[in-house]
Amino acid sequence: MAASSIPPATAQAPSSSGTINASSIPNLRDRIPKLQPRRRAAAPANPTPAPATPTLLPPTATPEKLGDFQFAIPRRRILSQNDHEIFLESATCTLLQAWVFGLAESVVDTPAGVFADALAAAAAARQTRTELPEDIPGQWRPGQQQQRTYQKNLPQRPLSPVVLALLSILDEAEALVYANPPDDAGGSRFGNKRFRGFVDQVRQRAVQWHKEELGMKEKETAKDEGGREGESEGVSAIAEAAAYLAQSFGNRARIDYGSGHELHFVVWLLCLYQLGLVSRDDMPALVLCVFARYLDVMRLVQTTYYLEPAGSHGVWGLDDYQFLPFLFGAAQLLHHRYITPRAVHQPLTLEQFGDDYLYLGQVRFVNSIKAASTTNVVQVGEGEKLTAGGGGSGDNSLRWHSPMLDDISATKTWEKVEGGMRRMFVAEVLRKLPVMQHFLFGSLVPAAPGMTLPREGKEAGEAGADVDDEDEDAIVDGNDTVDVFQEGGVRHIHNPSGWGDCCGIRVPSSLGAAGEMRKNGREALRRIPFD
């Protein structure tokens, strides 16, 4: 190096002996920045408290009150930002929180194994049924997907007749998947069109399920919220409840599924509570038996038809499809002695306790799909279906494909996880306009005064109607006209302050991507942090 490039402080003439005087070399330690130890960010002085559970009011349409009660055909009422703001301040929003959080509280510290004996007896009884529809393949039997392993020596609880009836309805819904096998000729990762046939059959049979399984009686007429008589006479209470059930299996036009459809299923159970068919004593079974069975059916639907995630945040979301298993599952584990949030990284824990706790079961399912090292194939009619087989190492795979779940696992207690899930339900479901603008309001779950009145014509609750066929006019919110978007046959609006969660770039689900890879000769998904 040239002498001119040496800093003046370090330039030193050599001594007569050719050596440099060490005492003249400056102490460079003072010029090196001192290392500062990393410190964890301080907790906020006033952290946002978890939403409390509002009081769940008594049922509004019990048999004793039916004489003065007018049912309504469920219709969309959140058609603008102003409608959404009115809803958030309404008694209906409080009712939804009271019901969902009440279900979560009913299963605190309760594993699903407390219903193991009753579920086994009910499944055995349903497998002896012979009155199956003619179009159901002979290889299907009720409850064949319900093979679970629960903890031993748990105190057992019985199941009420209405819970058993709900399980039978879900059995028949599962059978319709086998009656509508996927069309392998489509070759699309963005949803199989045979899903529409499945949804059509669910809608056709929903009314009959309420009559035969739940014993609901017909009324002479059904009126909508404007006082107009419905097109289908004699199905008032049944028409209202059946509309929510029909919406809980996914969107027929877009062939997608998300937390909004999951919410409709829980609201269907709320309608049955409002009608006096289910009681508060049934709430633990509604979560651990009925909702768990619904998850089984929806996983079959998702893996069979490659449903697109509705409003998915991709790898940075909690899950592509479901939310409530994490809320209910965190409540189950609230005071567990040795299973901590970090247990989601332990494959043996997921395998041993995944059937008892919804949170662990959902993580196990996500791992098996998104980090699949092997895939299993089963026959669905004439086609094939990708099932949740194999799975990667719980620790490494979760970190790659679900970083949000990985971050949550660093939480010290389940109390914080459960509180965070409550906040997320309010923020990501109830307060998300792209989600709630598709929500249906009737009389059991009424719209608030001041919300946009529904348009004339055929609506979701009526026979043969499809909520996706609605075509609203231009929407005026205050003095401004709100942009209305056409997506998948649905006209709707976007929240101007954020990303259009219901539209945007179409992203194939990990199920669809894995299925198409398998068809092309590849055995598994690559370990990449996105689909």
UniProtKB/TrEMBL annotation:
Matching SUPFAM superfamilies? PTPA-like
* GO molecular function term, any single one: protein tyrosine phosphatase activator activity
Into which family does the record put it? Answer: Belongs to the PTPA-type PPIase family.
Q: Where is the composition biased (Pro residues)?
A: 46-61
* Leader sequence segment: none
| Catalytic reaction list | [protein]-peptidylproline (omega=180) = [protein]-peptidylproline (omega=0)
- The highest taxon in the source lineage is Eukaryota
Record-linked Pfam families: PTPA
The top EC class, named as a word, is isomerase
An example GO BP is: mitotic spindle organization
Q: What is its EC number?
A: 5.2.1.8
What is the name of this protein? Serine/threonine-protein phosphatase 2A activator
For bias type Polar residues, the affected ranges are 12-26
Q: Which GO terms describe its cellular component?
A: cytoplasm; nucleus; protein phosphatase type 2A complex
User: PANTHER family of this UniProt entry?
Assistant: SERINE/THREONINE-PROTEIN PHOSPHATASE 2A REGULATORY SUBUNIT B (PTHR10012), SERINE_THREONINE-PROTEIN PHOSPHATASE 2A ACTIVATOR 2 (PTHR10012:SF5)
Q: What is the lineage of its organism?
A: Eukaryota, Fungi, Dikarya, Ascomycota, Pezizomycotina
InterPro entries per the record? Phstyr_phstse_ac, PTPA_C_lid, PTPA_sf
Supply the alphabetized keyword list: Cytoplasm, Isomerase, Rotamase
- The annotated region (Disordered) lies at 1-65
